[in-house]
Design a protein that fits this description.
heterodimer, A: alpha+beta, two-stranded antiparallel ribbon, 8 strands, B: alpha/beta, N-terminal domain of TfIIb, Dimethylsulfoxide Reductase, domain 2, disordered C terminus
């Protein structure tokens, strides 16, 4: 859309939840945030992850919908359920391998990230990717992302299910494991267990 | 006035903080309508001062739109910035001036409130002398208000004692930079970060306290730059650090002297730069000779190997930057810590070039601008020293008074509270400052506030401190008066007025002028607008280091900010200092300054064996007067928790979520444990944004850095024990004060 693509990079996420707050401001779902945000395991790490919908080429949510309420547009954006059709059954919630759709019981409707349709359809950037201060959510041109350390992919495997998506995940270029326990960096009159290379 | 007029519960019920979850009228109502105007201005919170567009309809801010054209943050915002617009229509907003009564606080007319304020200030001064009255200012105020407060204290009241809450923030860095470079400003624009080959982050939780700076760090890394992070906690940016140095609280000085030791031992210093542009190198070289990596490791808890690697990485880069914040500055040797980092930069030739230098990360909104124009106890406008006869003469001329009528330097913020406590200062007028939450040693502050004979507060919400006031003057939010601010980069920005203050609230500048009028000083305060104040500020700053003379509102708009110094109208401003190789000292040299090791003012002992350090979380700002009222931010981190490593927790049988009592030499609080491996096992961390039984500052101490007078928030000693159950503050009865959460639908 207008030459921009959406990239998600949890390694750059600082857990500030700016995206979560900003999503509430979006015109199509005011007061409801469609961002999926998690602390991975706060006892061990500050790592966090903020996700939007991945907008699958063949959306599982739409395939399992008994009411034919979930539609993907020609632009590749998978929309929230159509209110007149949605029966609030939550099949989509159970089936989505990414855990994206949300049921709002008060509305009896599934809603999800529509990539800020009101903004992206007119050439603006989505609210979350505009405000994100740490490049964890980016809506930029592919040439801009090419200069990053991490590399984009949009192919995911869930068991035997292969999914390709509109949104890209940034994957680490290097795979060295990293210790996240402060103890491994502390000097206590003994050798240090993690060596930090120059 | 001894105590709050009624019980805290009654005050809480009336004035909050109540968490607001929706814009005025709810998500589906007024805020849904299209904006009539988009006002390009800045976030009211931290020193990054991100550009933001406020959506305005009628006299209401109803939402925001990112401002992608503003170069510093390019539309990015942290959650506080996203939710900042929720304050204007907040149900807790003070809409009338209030006076203390037996039933609490009663709305009164402005004449009543201002007459009483002027009368009481005058009576106290007549009875006890001019200096028995003190002024507290705030670093969130626009520069016009800061300037006006400084002039108000010295001209309208004639008191020596004015200081501001930036004393809790930037003064160690400012003092160090003045010693080394002769000027108090980060010497480089943030765009330099992306050009550095190495960035060392010293005691700065960038991800939570300056989130936008993360973007610059990641751009630096994408260009091949390396990141070194020094912190007792593995903050979010540490996950992407190339080198992480988990320094023991209060030992940073040893670490930076150790880094310089390795640089000099291995001959990595830049001799040509040192001899051409600096003085004092030999003395500093002598002073670090004893600080070999093994000695430093014993002191700091950082492995010798890591010290060697970090020193080499920093020194071998052509362009390296050392950035620092409160972690090293909130110490009784905060100035030395900054100086040690500056010494490292000077020795390696890192100053005055693109992508090379040192930088302080300003914490408060107008932390930079608010300290440049006379709100500090020892400074006059333009960053001039109040002790300098020439500065006094210049300022007196602008003010239309005799230099002899300008009082001498007064007490700093904590010293003012101590003078109140011992009865030397009898009356206080406080603007935009919540010392009961933000000063160290909360019990002491509470006692002091109870001793005031008169206490006036200017604020837009009823802070916990204001509970002790005689008069509360309903002032203005940042977006309710036009003015300028200065960001962490030294970029002067334009704060546009979006709306008028609601109800009977008034612009702060009007309030000070009205009090001045009632003190018989009207002719010195003739302003009809903040623009007129600014024009006087420009003149007052002219020829000073922080020279704003060439900066107008229009010029700021045209260039998206102008970096000071900017001495003439056709001057382009100065994004990077010292490019000509000269400092602001008379001899043009950068100064190496010797640093000496000292222990913390509150040492750990057998009885208090655990280090306590305090700081912020990303969803709250300073004393929480504003951000504890915004539901979406409050829910993100509703109450302070005590971060503790599982090994330390295990010694006390503490598990995640357990209630833990932390006791220092001054007091105790009981909080829930957050057991995490992301903190040193000899240290606990508590965020400080909350009052009363949740106040981290009930534990902290009043030891000050002797030069900067900053309190040692980052190093206290405490003991821990598992509590039997929740403390009073956590019992359900207090929740009745929360407004019903307005529905999502």
């Amino acid at each position: 859309m207008h030459g921009y693509e959406f990239y998600v990079d949890p390694s750059r996420c600082i857990g500030c939840q700016s995206c979560v707050k900003a999503c509430e401001e979006c015109e199509t779902h005011r007061g409801k945030s469609m961002i999926n945000f998690d602390f991975i395991d706060r006892s061990r790490t500050t790592a966090t992850a903020a996700y939007v919908c991945w907008h699958c080429d063949e959306p599982t949510c739409a395939m399992v919908c008994p009411a034919d309420a979930i539609k993907k547009g020609e632009d590749g954006v998978v929309q929230s359920s159509l209110k007149p059709r949605c029966i609030g059954c939550a099949n989509c919630v159970l089936a989505c391998p990414f855990g994206i759709p949300k049921i709002f019981p008060a509305l009896d409707q599934m809603m999800k990230c529509d990539m800020c349709y009101d903004r992206t359809s007119v050439g603006k950037r989505p609210m979350c990717a505009t405000v994100c201060p740490s490049q964890a959510l980016s809506y930029v041109r592919p040439d801009e992302i090419a200069g990053r350390r991490e590399k984009p992919t949009n192919v995911f495997y869930f068991g035997k299910q292969k999914i390709t998506t509109r949104v890209y995940m940034m994957t680490p270029a290097e795979t060295d494991s990293v210790s996240l326990d402060v103890l491994d960096y502390v000097w206590e009159n003994s050798h240090v267990t993690v060596s930090q290379s120059q | 006035m001894a105590e709050p007029p009624v019980s805290p519960d009654v005050l809480l019920e009336r004035f909050g903080p109540h968490p607001a979850y929706t814009p005025p009228g709810g998500w589906q109502d007024e805020s849904r309508n299209p904006a009539e105007r988009l006002v390009q201005t800045h976030c009211c919170f931290c020193g990054q001062q991100c550009g933001i567009q406020l959506k305005v309809r009628g006299n209401r801010v109803i939402g925001f739109e990112p401002w992608e054209e503003f170069p510093f943050n390019r539309g990015m915002l942290c959650p506080k910035g996203v939710k900042r617009y929720m304050q204007g229509g907040h149900p807790d907003r003070l809409l009338d001036p209030l006076m203390r009564s037996s039933e609490g606080f009663q709305p009164v007319s402005w004449d009543q409130a201002l007459d009483l304020t002027a009368k009481r200030l005058r009576e106290v001064q007549e009875k006890y002398g001019k200096d028995s009255v003190a002024i507290y200012g705030g670093a969130s105020l626009i520069s016009e208000k800061s300037y006006l407060l400084g002039k108000f204290a010295r001209v309208a009241l004639g008191t020596r004692h004015i200081d501001y809450n930036g004393r809790l923030c930037m003064v160690s860095a400012g003092t160090a930079y003045k010693l080394a470079f002769g000027v108090d400003r980060s010497p480089l624009p943030w765009s330099d970060i992306t050009k550095a080959q190495v960035v060392l982050i010293a005691g700065a939780n960038v991800a939570e306290c300056a989130p936008i700076t993360t973007d610059y760090l990641w751009r630096c890394r994408d260009a091949g730059g390396k990141l070194i992070v020094v912190d007792p906690r593995m903050t979010p940016i540490c996950r992407n650090a190339d080198i992480y140095l988990p320094v023991r609280p209060g030992t940073d000085l040893a670490l930076y002297m150790g880094l310089l030791h390795v640089v000099l031992r291995d001959g990595l210093e830049r001799r040509e730069f040192i001899s051409a542009h600096t003085t004092g190198f030999e003395q500093v070289a002598d002073s670090v000779r004893a600080w070999d990596p093994r000695t430093v490791a014993e002191k700091t808890g950082v492995p010798p190997e890591s010290i060697e690697v970090a020193a080499h990485t920093f020194a071998k880069a052509d362009r390296a930057i050392a950035m620092h914040a409160r972690g090293i500055e909130h110490q009784s040797k905060g100035v030395e810590n900054c100086l040690a980092l500056i010494n490292l930069c000077l020795a390696t030739g890192n100053i005055g070039r693109a992508g090379a230098g040192c930088a302080m990360i300003t914490g408060q909104g107008n932390g930079q601008g608010g300290r440049e124009h006379g709100q500090k106890c020892d400074q006059l406008p333009g960053q001039r020293s109040i002790n300098d006869p020439e500065a006094r003469a210049h300022t007196a001329k602008v003010w239309g008074i005799s230099p002899d009528d300008i009082p001498q330097a007064g007490y700093s913020a904590v010293e003012i509270m101590e003078a109140i406590h011992r009865g030397e200062i009898k009356a206080l007028l406080s603007a935009c400052f919540n010392p009961l939450v933000s000063l160290p040693d909360e019990n002491f502050t509470r006692e002091a506030l109870g001793k005031l004979e008169f206490f006036g507060v200017v604020d837009f919400f009823m802070s916990e401190t204001a509970h002790y006031a005689d008069v509360v003057l309903a002032g203005s939010l940042q977006e309710e008066e036009e003015g300028i601010g200065c960001t962490t980069e030294g970029r002067v920005i334009h704060i546009r007025k979006a709306v008028d203050p609601p109800g009977n609230a008034r612009g702060d500048s009007w309030i000070y002028c009205e009090i001045a009028k009632r003190l018989g000083k009207e002719k010195f305060f003739p302003y009809r607008s903040t623009r007129e104040i600014y024009d006087e500020l420009r003149e007052a700053s002219r020829g000073g280091h922080a020279d704003y003379y060439g900066i107008t509102y229009e010029k700021v708009d045209e260039h998206m900010g102008v970096f000071w110094p900017c001495p003439t109208l056709d001057h382009p401003g100065t994004p990077r200092l010292f490019e000509d190789g000269r400092s602001f000292h008379a001899d043009g040299k950068h100064r190496f300054v010797v640093t000496e090791w000292r222990e913390s003012g509150d040492p750990v002992s057998a009885e208090f064996p655990v280090y306590l350090t305090t700081g912020r979380v990303v969803s709250q700002y300073l004393s929480g007067t504003q951000t504890r009222r915004i539901g979406g931010l409050l829910d993100q981190y509703p109450n302070p928790r005590i971060e503790i490593h599982p090994r330390l927790a295990g010694q006390y049988g503490i598990q995640d979520g357990d209630w833990v009592t932390a006791t220092s030499r001054r007091g105790e609080i009981t909080l829930q444990a957050m057991v995490v491996k992301t903190i040193r096992p000899d240290t606990v961390f508590i965020p400080y944004h909350w009052p009363g039984g949740r106040s981290a500052n009930r534990l902290t101490h009043r030891t000050l850095d002797p030069r900067s007078k900053i309190p040692e928030f980052k190093v206290s000693a405490c003991q821990l024990r598992k509590a039997d159950g929740p403390p009073d503050w956590a019992k359900p009865s207090l929740e009745k004060h929360a407004l019903p959460r307005r529905g999502n639908a």
